[in-house]
Design goal:
Low-confidence stretches: 350-356
Strand order of the largest sheet: 4-3-2-1-5
Oligomer: single chain
Helix content: 55-70%
Largest sheet: 5 strands, antiparallel
Number of domains: 3
Mean pLDDT: 81
Distance between the termini: 134 Å
Structural class: alpha+beta
Number of strands: 8
Strand content: 5-15%
Length: 356
Amino acid sequence: MSDMSVNAWAASLSWVLGGIFLGLLFEKFLLVKLKSSAAKTRWEGYEIIVGALPGTVALWFVVAGIYGALLGLPLAPAYLNIFFRVLLVVLILSVTWFAARTAVGFVNLYARKAGGMIPATTILAALTKLLVLLIGLLVVLQTLGVSILPLLTAFGVGGLAVALALQDTLSNFFSGLQIILSKQFKVGDFIRLETGEEGYVTDITWRNTIIRALPNNLIVVPNATLARSRITNFHLPEKETTTLVPLNISYDSDLEKVERVTLEVAKSVLEEIEGGVSEFEPLIRYTAFADFGISFNVVLQVREFTNRFLIIHELIKRLHRRYAEEGIVIPFPTRTVYLKNGLCSAACQGEPASKP
């Protein structure tokens, strides 16, 4: 091997090592400073762009080093052309990946600022990333000299077979899109399914909707099932909701007094307990002469559906104490036996009936 070849290989190796060194330098030091400055800036897009840089910029430095190394090597033009094409494909794919991560970040940012107009869900992020990656793949094929039109035709013919094979998966995918676009519910809403299961919507993926129940366990429901189900959304048209607390009082009670005392307690609960709508004036409505007393409902308003549990808990506790102070009797199931002419049969007294 000649001295010129040795020098060429040494120079090429230095190019490669230099690219690796600059990539590591950027990842370890410069990227940390960029992240620190991004956290201080008011424009959130800057933080999204910096967050998409890890791994990609280091790869770009390595590609640049390899490109510089190839320029100094005594290789045949045919081999150089192959290596250059490979580097170009790697560069395009890395730029595409960076663009996809950035696009997903901006879509999620816009979704958060849109006030619910566009929900920030996994399926939306996946669609954005898939679209950008498909564009990058088409650019790579065009760069390699592959005609795109025959491929699109082949995809169109094979798409029917794929659609038939993945009918269930595609049904869930398009059902998820339909749920998002129709705004039946969004991430963060509290919903109840027709099966009785309820909880907060945490995510809508390309296949399932994830619901976090109040016991903090997850309910995974296929999107197609949700699209066909009856759903109660407790956050629409607004979060504030009315709740009824059924109660009973004795027939001997003064109903005017019961109403006054109950409203005083209910108002104090709404004003003092977190989750109550303090501006709302509570109501009571007598509903029936029940078997063991007079039934009525206390009408309250809470900030959202899940606040009702603490509000009802506190109302019952305070009413029980206040009713005891005011002499209002809360009835319990009893049975009264009336004796005709003051007599009781043998069966009533628990004795066996005598034979005639």
